[in-house]
Amino acid sequence: MPNRKRSTRDRASVSRSAMAMVVVTVGSALACSTWSSGRDESAAEDPLVATVDGNEIHLAKVDARIRQELFDREFGDDADSLYEARRMTVDELVDERLLADAAASAGMTTDAYLDSALGALPPITDEEVQQVFDKNRDRLPAEATIDEYDSQLRSYIIDQRIAQVFARLREGSNIQIHVPRNRVEVAASGPGLGPIDAPMVIVAFSDFQCPFCARAAPTLQILHERHPDDLRIVYRHMPLSFHGQARLAAIGAVCADSQGRFWDYHDALFADQNALERNDLIAHATTLGLDADAFATCLDDPSSAAVVDMDAADAEALGVTGTPTFFVNGLKLTGARPVEHFEAVLVEESTRVAP
């Protein structure tokens, strides 16, 4: 087992650490947003950088302005990203607190305790490395070999083991997390899966020509199967302007819905995103056993297009700029997230809405 002398923050991926570091850095600026024009208590730690007619400006005030500007630039009005950054950082701080307490109880430093916990685990085997390589093969260049990525793969496995150490530290601990989230009202109008009175609702704004939406579709199906009684999933249309076939495909889905086959048609469109021309849409309807003549008439009916346009207008009013975008009980999530990400939100929501 390699010697681990990294901080607890280093256990996270580069993307998680980068986001978390922004929030940690800015957090002090948010807590210290009011500055005195007088001299700081410690001039050595807060040097004077300018004077204006005898009024002093110190470095701390300059740095506070920079931090605030970096914060605004990073997050702006993106409440979703800000929440994620805050939540990731809170999770890190919780883990660091647990590690510090466990190390103190064992009479060890945090680094020594973590190294000891890792050292108690069996050595990393070549089989483990091969499994991780195979699992992530599609994310690597076609010509990539396991030898080229051996060190990165082993570091990844170590990070997974560190995560297991922290998971064990959390067991039995009384941890309560209350990071505020921006919740909005979203109409759950449209084709749905699950009980209409379900306590948890996912409203998905999607585009049939969007590859990321196709990637997200199986995730929603998994969630539906896992939560058949307490989750409703609603599909709403947001065909993007640069997807030339997306709007007519959305209208086709509206027409399939009028014959009670929305979800079958939804699956057919995402299964073949290269077949979204008008003739293809009618062919999908025929294959599913729909009334082809009624379907073709529906495609040209302005009321069918109006359903799509209303969904798109609602998405714009909600600040949706890309697909797929999801609202879980009004909490915004963007992109083709892994199922575990949705599950984490659903766990929080199930606690919040519990009677």
Summarize this entry quickly.
The protein is of the alpha+beta class and 355 residues long.
Labels describing this entry:
355 residues, alpha+beta, five-stranded mixed beta sheet, two-stranded antiparallel ribbon, 13 helices, 7 strands, globular
Integer-rounded radius of gyration: 26 Å
Which percent bin holds the helix content?
A: 40-55%
Low-pLDDT sequence parts: 1-42
Mean pLDDT: 87
Structural class, by secondary structure, is alpha+beta
Number of strands: 7
The profile of the biggest β sheet is: 5 strands, mixed
| Order of strands, widest sheet | 3-5-4-6-7
Strand content: 5-15%
Q: Total number of helical segments? A: 13
The ordered H/E elements are: HEEHHHHHEEHEHHHHHEEH
Label the overall shape: globular
Distance between the termini: 48 Å
Notes on the protein architecture:
The longest helix has 27 residues, at 79-105. The strands form two sheets. This protein has a five-stranded mixed sheet. Strands 1-2 form a two-stranded antiparallel ribbon. It is globular. With 355 residues, the chain is α+β, with helices and mostly antiparallel strands. The chain is built from 13 helices and seven strands. 54% of the residues lie in helices and 9% in strands. It has helices at residues 14-31, 59-75, 79-105, 110-119, 126-135, 150-170, 211-226, 246-258, 262-271, 278-287, 292-299, 302-317, 339-353; strands at 48-52, 55-58, 192-193, 200-206, 231-237, 325-328, 331-334. The chain starts with 13 loop residues before the first helix and ends with a helix. The model is unreliable at 1-42 (pLDDT under 50). A hairpin with a 2-residue loop joins strand 6 (325-328) and strand 7 (331-334).
